[in-house]
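Shipment paperwork, digital attachment
Item: protein structure file
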Amino acid sequence: MRKFKYFLRGRLLPCALLFALIVVGWVLLALWLPRLLAPVAILERIFSLAVALYVVQSEELPEVKRSKLVLLFVPWTGAILCLVFRTPKAAFLRANRGHAPLLSRHTAKSVEYFSVGREMYERLLCDLKEAKHHIFLEYYIIARGKFWGDISELLAERAASGVDVRVIYDAFGCGCTLPDGYERELSSKGIRAAVYKPLRVGKGFSRRDHRKLAVIDCVAYLGGVNLSDEYIGETVRLGHWKDTAIRIEGGVEAFSEQFLRTWYALRPSDGFPKVPASEGGDLPFYPLFDGDAARDFPHVLLLLIARAEERLYLFTPYLSLPDALMEALAAAAEAGTDVRIMIPHIPDKKSVFFLTRAYARLLAGRGIAVREYTPGFLHAKSAVADGKIAAVSSYNLDFRSFYVQAECGALVEDERLAAEIERDFLSAWEQGAPVKKTNAFLRLLGRIAMLFAPLT
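Attachment content:
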């Protein structure tokens, strides 16, 4: 009920109404205009041909081009949609293709793995209580409840003690979980807050801040856990909510600097403060951020696939892969690598889950084992190769996370951590079930949905 109230009073409602009005207008235009003005239909085809030539010569990913060319079969609206959809350019995304990602090596004193959100919550509260210099939180979803209530209480206490406390939350992700203008409420408690891309009618909605990042002095938390009660089992939603995260101690200033770059983009008048260096240790890790073509997550996955000689295990809530990754996974499986992917059984978004299952069936047909996590919803975003190297992040295995949204994570070379993630994966795997077979009609719909996956 609270989410519905925030939706009605917030900025999501007028934006949703405008979007619905535009869709209705496009449909009416497609149905009526050719009938009323038959000669205009010829102009429409000429316009579509011009758009097709524009798409073909563009530097977009081949998958994106393919999706847009299919759209052109739709009269009027197809050509317009091709121009409306803004997608990343292949020249930027595929820099250094065929080479190892140019990852920046850091070292940590320790890396701790959390197989459920509750474990992270308890550890996070302890670190917040001990914060001395700064607390930086950047989250896609923050929702009022026990989890955020406990955290915000500690944030106010530490801010009153002189700790630099800053919070970034995404306007869309929190559109139904926080009231409009919530940043002012936080500011009244001494907590500096910034909203990522406030919702405005007519403004772009595509790129969102999907990160889950907490930096507390020399400690960083990364993974899939948002600051909402279902992530810690305080409320039950979609069965058992399975998520993962890691705590890195030492050498984490790269995450602080990334947070401050985002903060500066939102609040340039605040300047760009220096962050004290944190002493590292012996465990090598590599920070992962969106926006750097040499370090984008598809490259990191290609690296993991290449490194995996015996086994490769991946958790993901959503699945829609670029052609290069599909081929790499299939080639690894054909070469004898045990490739397994775990997806949810109970979906949070049914349309996206339909697409996830379509990709899962395609991968299963190419020798890759895929199971659904039957106890509930799986939101974990982890990958591990040969029990030696692992990635934990906010990245889903889909086009939006790869190429559109702001994301972060870490690639860690630590056999102890990798072994923990493997054990957790295999435990979840035992509770899983194969993806259900479906009829020919639904398979066809799935393949059609896959054509448009790069545009989602």
